[in-house]
Write a structure and sequence with these properties.
It contains 11 helices and 8 strands. With 275 residues, the protein is α/β, with parallel strands linked by helices. Strands 1, 2, 3, 4, 5, 6, 7 and 8 form an 8-stranded mixed beta sheet that branches.
């Protein structure tokens, strides 16, 4: 895949999520009520979606109004084991839902950095943080392939249904390793492929922006992560996720090819050196 193709995919995803943010700001639906990239103007529908993904009503009620747009394919914090005082980066932070929940776990002495490449989403997240007075949370404009974060400064990276959107996942994992401290960990919910997808689906821009066409086979993801330098790689697909994925593109049969999974890994600790 050449650079122009990468840029085209990235721009299409950026435009799609700008539409999602604007629809949510205007209390409108962008036309897809259950997709990982769609929002509804019905709060009850967003509640149902988030509950299916593993969030409780208490969690939804603890974040600023509008932060939960019914996006995602799981709950990465369920596997993150966040601790007070930790520094967390949320890849593709959107309106800030997972970032705000993480902030409550790391506390006032912790730090949460949300990264998003869509200016409209970034503005929404920053406004939400200001309204709710989350002082330990900040949001930065950037691409997940080139994170605006210093080397070896992050304890945990979380992400919810975002890495599948990247046209260069090798670079995503390389840069994730760069910013993690030795011993730092990945805790990700994402979409993976259970079998090879037909070419017409792979090349469908709507399915790509909808978190389906860009999914990688589990073994390929493990190879990318290993090549980047991660250890203790664990990818656990969830068969039950097909029940909600089938609603993302009704009638297309995408649930036969992709499903949600938890993805975990650790950056190796520094090795001792002998003189």
């Amino acid at each position: 895949m050449n650079q122009k193709t990468h840029d085209d995919i990235r721009q299409h995803v950026r435009d799609s999520y700008a539409e999602v943010a604007e629809a949510n700001n205007n209390s409108n639906s962008c036309g897809v009520e259950s997709s990982c990239c769609g929002v509804s103007d019905d709060e009850a529908i967003n509640t149902i979606i988030s509950t299916r993904l593993g969030y409780s009503e208490d969690e939804r009620g603890s974040v600023p109004e509008g932060a939960d747009m019914g996006l995602g394919c799981g709950n990465p914090r369920a596997i993150a084991s966040l601790k007070p005082g930790e520094t967390v980066v949320d890849l593709g932070s959107g309106g800030g839902f997972d970032a705000f929940l993480a902030a409550q776990e790391v506390g006032e002495n912790g730090h949460v950095i949300g990264i998003d490449m869509t200016p409209t989403m970034l503005s929404k997240a920053r406004s939400n943080a200001e309204k709710a007075k989350f002082k330990q949370v900040e949001f930065r404009l950037g691409e997940i392939e080139h994170l605006p974060v210093a080397d070896n400064t992050v304890d945990v990276i979380i992400s919810n249904c975002v890495i599948n959107l990247s046209p260069n996942k090798h670079q995503v994992f390389r840069d994730a390793l760069r910013i993690l401290k030795p011993g730092g960990r990945l805790a990700i919910s994402d979409i993976v492929a259970s079998t090879e997808m037909p070419e017409d689906m792979k090349n469908d821009p709507l399915l790509h922006a909808g978190c389906m066409a860009g999914a990688e086979l589990v073994d390929d993801l493990k190879a990318m992560m290993s090549e980047a330098g991660f250890e203790n790689i664990r990818i656990a697909p969830k068969d039950e996720s097909r029940d909600f994925i089938k609603d993302w593109a009704p009638g297309r049969g995408v649930e036969d090819y992709v499903l949600s999974a938890t993805i975990e890994a650790i950056k190796p600790t520094s090795k001792g050196c002998c003189c």
